[in-house]
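agent> Task received from the user: take the single chain below, predict its 3D structure, and emit structure tokens. No templates, no multimer pairing.
agent> Plan: (1) validate residues, (2) run structure prediction, (3) serialize to tokens, (4) report one or two observations.
agent> Step 1 OK, no nonstandard residues flagged.
tool_call: predict_structure(input=
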Amino acid sequence: MQDVKTTVRQYIQDNFLMGDAADYADDASFMDAQLLDSTGFLELVHFLEDTYAIKVEDDEMMPDNLDSLEAIARFVDRKRAA
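)
tool_result: status=success, residues=82
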């Protein structure tokens, strides 16, 4: 099974970079790199909920949880452990 960072990286490449294998660090900010806009973040949240059977609450939709591959991996791990 792929780890969270690998799965989310592939999702972003397929859906937002149109398959372009742009190389960005696991801790790179999606907002700073302008990889995702507000609609993109909502699509990402739906992807995470569907893929990992978690519920992302409104108050959890913040950069600390969703603005990099590292942040997403930590967030998903916390949600799955709860």
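agent> Step 4: summary for the user.
The domain at 4-81 is CATH 1.10.1200.10 (Non-ribosomal Peptide Synthetase Peptidyl Carrier Protein; Chain A).
agent> Done.
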